[in-house]
Amino acid sequence: MAKRKKRQWFKRGVWWKKIRQNREHKDRLFRYLFQDKRNLLELYNALHDSNYTNPEELEVVTMEDVIFMKMKNDLSFIIDSRLNLYEHQSTWNPNMPLRGLFYFSRQYEGLLGAEDADVYGTKRVPLPTPEYIMFYNGSGMEEDRRALYLSDSFSMGRGSGALECTCQVINVGRGHNRELMDKCRRLWEYSEFVSEIEANIKKGLGRDEAIQSAIDRCIERGILTDILKTEKSEVLHMIFLTEYDEKKHLRHTFEEGREEGIAEGIEKGIAEGKREGREEMLLELIQKKVARGKSPEEIAQELEEDIGTIRRLLDREKSKESITNGKINT
After folding, report:
1. 37, 60, 105, 197: which has the fewest Cβ within 10 Å?
2. Which of 138, 191, 200, 193 is nearest to 169 (CA)?
3. pLDDT tens-digit profile of 84-133?
4. What are the E-state strand segments in 111-208?
5. Strand 129-136 to 166-171 pairing
6. What kind and span of H or E run contains 87?
7. Single pTM value for the model
8. From CA 220, how far away is CA 250, in angstroms rounded?
9. How far is it, in rounded angstroms, from Cα 278 to Cα 282?
10. What share of the chain is helix, strand, coil (3-state, %, to 5)?
């Protein structure tokens, strides 16, 4: 394929405002494997029957360490005038097209800002063509591929309205999409490794034993040997944190942080990007501190939270017996 001139659609750091950073986040195994440009280019070629050979033609534009609408971007890159968004999911999520809409809107805003494009001018502004793919290795999907449409969420159904965002779901479970797996060995290796773990769990092995057994088995079969032999602890850490028991880990992180200090525990929980239940956790802590005679200012200081948030939560709950008995003046 003839080499094409690379258009500088994106300048890192120019446009997005980092809403919140999570420095302790460990990438999921899928992203860990395909953050290498060579592996990512191989995957792109396999999907498009293309034959790019220079990884530097692939321009990575992944939103690093940014939490936007509770979505952390997995892999995003530009090549051949395509803006590609690759996400991995192990649990079914029918709202992926909506997430894609949020992502592409934000990404295009950044790309146009970097180009200093005039969207109010008389000339059409060129855009890289968006492509959105979800690699799925969970249960409940028997077919190799499926398309999800944003318009399915509209009250008038698919095809209605002025907007559409399509997410192509590719089943990467064992036995699916064999032609694609043959073209991209890294994807096949990932599928086999995860399938080994799932098979071990079904046999009744504990999670840590199942993962360790899968690592040993895959090394014997020559699967992911470059990763599993040299970075075994990192692989274990990623899987424990994300692939199989993320919610349990987040609860554990919060409780562990509480032992170290309640404020630090909350900060860790928020840093993991999980905002659900945040107010409920705060209320539980507030109620305990109220019972000890703490003032709102003392509570806010200990939790390292904004005093306005604390007052609002106390106001909302002061009618409850657990709060009113504390006789706190807010």
Report:
1. 105
2. 138
3. 999 988 889 999 999 999 989 988 988 888 888 888 989 999 999 999 99
4. 129-136, 145-149, 166-171
5. parallel
6. strand 82-89
7. 0.64
8. 33
9. 6
10. 50, 10, 40
